[in-house]
Amino acid sequence: MSFSIEEIAKFPYPGMSLPNSFQFSPDNLFLGYLKSSNSDSKMSLYVIDLQNFQEIKILDDLSSSKIESFDEQMRRQRLRQLSTGITRFSWMKGGQILLPHGEEIYILDDFDSQPRLLIEDPEIKAVSPQSSPDGTKIAFVNNGDIWQVNLDGTDLKQITFGDSYKTRGVADYIAQEEMGRANGFWWSLDSKFVAFSEVDNSQIPAFKISHLADNNRQDEIHYYPFVGSENPIVKIGIVNTDSLECNWIDTSGYEYIPRLNWVKSNQILVQLQNREQTKLDVNLYNNSGKLLGTIIKEQSDFWINIHEAFQNLPNGKYVWTSEKTGFRHLYGLDLISREINQITTGDWQIDSFEGFSKDTNELFFTATKDSELEKHLYRINKEGVIDPISLNRPGIHNVKINCDQNVYIDVNHALSQQPRVELRNLKTDELIKDISPDKDVRIEQFGLTPPKLLKIPHEKSEYLNSAVFYPDENEYGPGPYPTVVYVYGGPHVQLVTDSWGLTANLRLQYLKDQGFLVAVVDNHGSNRRGVSFESSIKNKLGEIEVNDQKLMLDWLIDQGLTDEERVGVFGWSYGGYMTLMCMAKYPELFRVGAAGAPVVNWQLYDTHYTERYLGLLEDNYENYDLSNVTTYAKNLDGELMIIHGMIDENVHFTHSAELIQSLIENDKSYDLLAFPKERHMPRGQSDRVYMEKRMMDFLISKI
Hints:
Blueprint: H1 5-8, E1 20-24, E2 30-36, E3 42-49, E4 55-59, H2 70-79, E5 84-85, E6 90-91, E7 97-101, E8 104-108, E9 116-117, E10 127-131, E11 137-142, E12 145-150, E13 157-158, E14 166-168, H3 173-177, E15 185-187, E16 193-200, E17 207-210, E18 219-222, E19 233-240, E20 246-249, E21 256-263, E22 267-273, E23 279-285, E24 291-299, E25 311-312, E26 318-322, E27 329-333, E28 340-342, E29 350-357, E30 362-367, E31 376-380, E32 386-388, E33 396-402, E34 407-414, E35 417-425, E36 431-434, H4 441-445, E37 452-458, E38 462-469, H5 473-476, E39 481-486, H6 500-503, H7 506-513, E40 517-521, H8 531-535, H9 544-558, E41 562-572, H10 574-585, E42 592-596, H11 607-614, H12 621-626, E43 639-645, H13 653-665, E44 671-675, H14 685-702
Parallel strand pairs: 3-5, 39-40, 39-41, 41-42, 42-43, 43-44
Antiparallel strand pairs: 1-2, 2-3, 3-4, 6-7, 7-8, 8-9, 10-11, 11-12, 12-13, 14-16, 15-16, 16-19, 17-18, 19-20, 21-22, 22-23, 23-24, 25-26, 26-27, 27-28, 29-30, 30-31, 31-32, 33-34, 34-35, 35-36, 37-38, 38-40
Helix pairs in contact: 9-10
């Protein structure tokens, strides 16, 4: 059965309305999470009582008449968040629950009470609230400085001070967008100090984004660090929350501060990188800002990926991960002796470190050990023996474990399986409680079928992973078929996995139902196949990735599956860039394309992302030109649709404007689908419906 285009614009996709944000309470008696009651995008707060395993709905929503602020819009854009209702929560030490809501803070004292607004003053705009580890105070950012308040709402005070043109406690743009660091301040373990980032954007020219469709025509001001220009100046301060005495850490000589962790004895580990991101130092400081030593030094010929795996263990040691062997693996770190010991080895990568059992001396982690197309949970004992826990259930396993209660939550899905959400025994893997959503009726109504996973032969890396949706042979014959390539192609992303996300992708299913073969391939540069595979794009974006997309099509043509005269391609962001480069470099093959929010000229993108892959502009002008879409605009002979939100603060509309000017100069035709009130990811329902209708109609009619 088929379905309407309007269904493509709905969120979430079939089977994807899942419980999320799992957190165990500090006393290990409850598991909290967010869940939709009606399989829509509005989330409510639930808990499972870990004594009797009953599920309890705690809170439906937080009522507020406030309009979503600009800062809240930016936060949701950084997180690519479309859900509504309760979107964040965190446990406090005393069992209370902290509920940020827009720029307000609510506290849920117990499950039977109603959330109370912590600060009544309407002048206070509370951003990024965090409770102290001892559960007595809340710190938050207000008007560019950190404030704190007691849990009962008393003793509200500002604790950081400085120049008004700088901010304290707010992560800068590239920390949020490119480093995955949303936090700009960190409580010490004893709740007496707060470390924070101070951001000075004064040397970055203001970049204006105009709201041309609004009556008041307001401009947004962004401090965007373009390639080759200055980055914000970021410093780390440490403030005593009682005396308000502030000390500073000297990070001069470094460009980026991707991570910070408090450790025992009120010491701080700070990860620091050079601008090229080829060097990483992990320095240890005391709470007065004094350097105690460099604990870890790493260097790469390509770049060093940032990770989240640094965690302290109950035995006083720490876990670290590194890709220095070519694949990300676990290491044990002793801060006293400074010894680092490798724990796991092999041609596979650690995806995440999940925990340590002090009773059995076992470490738990997820990894690609048995297949880069799947993700499984494993344990390793002190003898180094690795035991798979979830291998009997194929697909992807995203987990949260609790060694004290000997349980873990498992979100498991595969191409042929709608996601299951289950509480399981950590030792035996036995099912304790199933909190999976009901089977989504749309799966059967729409006739969703999974793609086939293929391995495309490749002389350099043996094979490329591909997923192919086949049209109904009874209706459309044995082929060759008109073909649509769905592409992302950039680093840190893997599209082809044994996961439900591909099956639930209604764009791909819709095109398949219209008689198209739909193909996806993870080209060189994609994630989870090791450093060599990913780093092959260094200094030459839009080359090997595009060649790999063509290689897949050549293989499909040779198999008699693809009609080489009828091939289209579409993608978003880096996928938009890839769409344009495929059409420009192989116009005889890629004859139709829809490029969403495309990067066109890498000199117009930010420093941290771009320079990681293309190097510094002053050293690599030629590589930047060779990676620029407009260099090849004269070859763009196919049918092209450009889709872009005009207030996109990530990939600015300037990219599409520069492309359009180049197309005009080269006398090339194009279609433009511009959204005056949308950013990088369209959120308005009417805009999403309009976009899907226009894009699907374009691809189907032109191919």
